[in-house]
Amino acid sequence: MTDTATETLISTGNQGHSHGPGSPVPLQARSERTTSYDVADFPVPNGREEEWRFTPIKALKALFADEAGTETVKIDAHGPDSVVIETVSTDAVKALTPQDRIAAVAWTQAGQALAVRIPNDAELTEPVHVNVAGLGGRGFGHLVIEAGRHSRGTVIVDHTGAGEYAANVEIVVGDGAELRVVSIQQGDTESIHVGQHDAVIGRDAKLNHVAVTLGGKIVRLSTNVRYAGPGGDAELLGVYFAEAGQHHENRLFVDHEAINCKSNVLYKGALAGDHARSVWIGDVLIRAAAEGTNTFELNRNLVLTDGARADSVPNLEIETGEIEGAGHASATGRFDDEQLFYLQARGIPEDEARRLVVSGFFNDIIGRIGVPEVAERLHEVIEEKLARTAALQEAAKA
């Protein structure tokens, strides 16, 4: 995609703005919250703010400080020969405007961005892989992903390692393009990862964004989508499995302003162990000009043991009645003992029955990810987590 095309795509979207320091944050309008590139516009939160009230902010103290990182993050990127992978300045695209203090600090401190550009009309037969390995300490990152007009491609971003990491991801989907972005969070047991992903979808373009959280002590991802033209389509999928002491948080905002656009959000999570915690916030805004919108969001959580907690808050703002459809749903429940009894009554051992129930819970969403290597990895990690959960339950009975 040329610079001119990129600038046009971004400028026709709903570009973020700043109300400046001290401005109120109205709860009734998600779109009116402060967005700014200036760290000073975001006071250090105290935990009572709507956007921070579910987050363990004391553990994020180091990421709130507007100071250079203490460790670099090792990044390796590779893909088909036609893909351009280069280093650019953080303000080269500006499809993203920070929506909180950590994102603004990351924007300021990252300095440079890794850009992955899929050329116009290219059809990738292999995914682009971006591997981000934390080396300990505190680090910042910035990634730009651009899909040129009428291109087709997949980008897999894999986060592993240790330390505290804050990063911004800008996604631009050109007119008529189809892009799949899979972000996997699987840091070690003490790692912290806070990220903001902003996507701009062009005319008749489609984005499939998948957020997979399988590790890390604290992971907080904010995913925002807006449309630069009519006919845009966004599918946002998420899978997470929080174990004892882990906090997995996903926040989404889909801003419908263009006509005849679609969005579908489906996130599923499981929790097991003391103080396992998940938070899902889903905000969808249908503006007055967004006639013909069709949107739905769903979050489901499966609580496998005592001591785990899931918070789920879907929000829908509609400013026009001229839409195709809009809805949201949320459900959190404990392990279904009736299903377990049904399987055991047919001779299936309890451990195997539990595995089948949880696998069935995740299967439909894993099948929609569309990347076999990611789906296989998900199945393997979920099996490992279930085995640990079963072992803990057996030890508790002893």
UniProtKB/TrEMBL annotation:
Q: Which residues form the SUF system FeS cluster assembly SufBD core domain?
A: 140-361
Q: Which GO terms describe its biological process?
A: iron-sulfur cluster assembly
Q: Where is this region: Disordered?
A: 1-32
Skewed-composition ranges (Polar residues): 1-17
Q: Which domain of life is it from?
A: Bacteria
* PANTHER family to which the protein is assigned, alphabetical: PROTEIN ABCI7, CHLOROPLASTIC (PTHR43575)
Q: Which NCBIfam families match?
A: sufD
Q: Which family does it belong to?
A: Belongs to the iron-sulfur cluster assembly SufBD family.
The molecule here is called Fe-S cluster assembly protein SufD
What gene, per UniProt, encodes this protein?
A: sufD
